[in-house]
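Risk register update: the risk of archive-format incompatibility is retired. Evidence:
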Amino acid sequence: MTLYAVTVFLSSFLLFQVQPLIGRYILPWFGGGPAVWTTCMLFFQTALLAGYLYAYLAARTTPRLQGYLHGALLAAALLLLPIAPSPLIWKPSPGESPVLKILLLLLANIGGPYLLLSATAPLVQHWFVLAFPGRSPYRLYALSNAGSLLALVSYPFLVEPNITLERQVTAWGWGFVVFVLCCGLCAFSLSRRGVGDTTAATEPAAASDRPGAGPISMWFLLSLCGSAVLLATTNQLCQEVAVVPFLWVAPLALYLVTFIIAFNRQRPYDRVLWGMLMIGALIPACRILHLGINVALPVQVLVCLSTLFTCCMVCHGELARSRPDPRHLTAYYLIIATGGMAGGVFVALLAPALFKGFWEYPLSLAGTCLVVLLAWFRGGAFVDTTRWLPASLVAGLLALFLFVAGYVAGDVSRFLSVSRNFYGVLRVLRFDDTNGERLTLMHGKVMHGTQFADPGRRRLPTTYYGPESAAGLALRLHPRRFAADPRLRNLRVGVIGLGTGTLAAYGKTGDVFRFYEINPEVIRISDSYFTYRRESAAHVEVIPGDARIVMEDELRRGTPQRFDVLIVDAFTSDAIPIHLLTRECFAVYWRHLQPDGLLLLHLTNRFLDLVPVVRAQASPGGERAVLVNSTDDIKAGISRADWMIVTRNRDFLGSSGVREKLAPEPATTSAGRLWTDDFASLWQAMK
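Archived output:
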C-alpha cells in the first residue's frame, strides 16, 4: 500500500510542479500577459483529459497487459527529458498565433511525461482496487490532491525565489526518474498477476449499476463550473498585477483544497453551510466588479479567492456526494476531466473570441449558481434541507443574472470602442467636462493615454508624458537639442509600447520615432481614434511584435538602432512584463543605444516598487539610475508618473532643467538579487 501511496503522491507533485515551472519559462516569449497562463491551463486540462482517457481504456484490458504497456510507456518517457524548450525553435515570430504556438510548444516538450503523470492517479487507484478488493481507493484521490497542493504552495515560496529555472528543470527531471521507478514497480507487480487473481475485482458491473445520463451530465457540468471559475478568477487577478506564479498558484491551490476536503471526508459536505457561504461570497464579488480599481489589492485578492473557494467547494462537494461504485472510477474521473477541459476552452478560447470584456468571471459565477441549483434539485435538497436555502439561492441567482446583464450592458454602452484579444481588453472613452472634450484609452482598468479634441490642444502631450515627466525632460532637454550644428539636433527615439502614441507629440522635423507594439489591436485603435502619430512633425514608424524579440532579431541582423533615447513603457494595466526588466534585456537596450543615450522606464504602479530593481540593473555597467516623480495637472490632462532614467550622460543629468526634477537618491539601496531571465522574484518589489 505504501508503494501505491508514494507513486500517486509523487506523480501529482510533479504534475503540478511542472505547471508553474514551464509557464514561468515561456512567459517572457509571449508578452508576459495573463492569457499565457490561461492558454497553459487549457493545455494542462486537455492533457489531463488525455491521461484519464488512457487510464479508462487501459483499465478495460487485462492486468498483465496494463502492466506491460504502462511500463513500456514509462521507459519511453525518459527519452523526452529534459523538458526545457529551445528558444531558437519556440520563440514566436511577429504575426504568429500565440495560442497555437504555446499549445504546440507544450505538446512537444512536456506532452509525453505530462500525459503519463496525468494518468497515474486514476490508473493506480484502479490497480489498488485489483490488489485490495473491497478497499476504497478514494483516499488515494485525496492524497493525490495533497501532493498537487504541496507542489503549488512550495513553488512561489521556496522554489522560485531560491532556484534558477535551469536548476528547476534539472531537479524536476530527476524527480520524474524516481517516479518512473516507483510506477514501474507497481506496473511490474500488476503484470505478474494472473487474470484469475482479480476476477471479483474486475467483474463488470451490472447494467443497472452503471451511471445514467443524469449523473454523468451533472459530473460534467459541476466540473466545468469549477474549472471556469478557477480560470476566470485567475484572469481577474492577473490582469491588474502581474502574471507571476503566486497569482497563478493561489487560485489553483484553493481549487485543489476543495477536492481534498470533499473527497477525504467520510460524510458528505454540509449543503446548508456551504450554500450560505457561497451566497455570502457572491455579494462582495459583485461589489468589487462594480468598484474596479477603487478597491485595495488585498481586498480584491481576498474577495476573489473567497468566492472561488466557496463556489468550488459546493461544486466538488456535489461531485463527491454523487461518486459511483469504485468499479466506475476511471469513467468518473474521465467525465470530471472532460468538464475541466470544457471550462478551460470556455475561458481560454471562447471568451476572448466572443466577449469584448472580461465577462467570463461574472458569467462563470452565475452559471455555477444555476448548475448548483440543478444539482440540489436532483439531490433532494428541496426535501432534506431547510426550505429557505433553495429559495435564497433562487433569489440570489436571479439577482446575480440581473447584475451580470447590467454589468455587460454598461461595459458596452459607456465606451466608443471595446475590443479584446490575447493581450487584454482595450476601451476608448469620450469625456466632456470643464477640462474639455477628450478621448481616453483604457487597458484593463488603467488609463493608457488621453488626447484633447480641441485642435488647439490636440497635440499637447498628456497623462504620464507631460513636459515635466522624465519622458518630457529627455525629449525636450537632451543635449543634442542644443547642438551648435542644426543638423545634429535631431533625435532618434525608440519607444517600447505604443498606447495612443502620445510621445510622438514631442517629435520635431528630422526626428525619427520608432514604436514597438506587441498588440495589433493597440495599433488599430491608435490609428482610428488618436492623431498623435499622424500629426507629429517627426518621421514615425510602428514595428509590430514583442519588442525584445524584435530588437534581438535586429541585433542578429547587424542593424542596431543607435537610439538617443529609448523609452520602455510596455506595462499593460498594472501588470508588468518581467522579461523587459532582466539583465539580459538591459544588455539588448544598451546595444541599441548611443554611448550617451538615455534609457527611460515608466514605473508607475499601484502595487509594485520597481525602482530598486532598475537600480540593480544600472549598477553593474557603471550607469547612473535616477528617479523622476512628476505631479498631476488635471486641467492639462497630465497624470502623476514615476520614471527612472538610466544613463552615462552626465551633461543631461547635470543640466539645470533636469537636475532640479530628480528625486533625492537614497543613502543606501537594497536592490536585492539581480533579476535575470533565469531568476526574478516579485516578492522583492511588493509595496
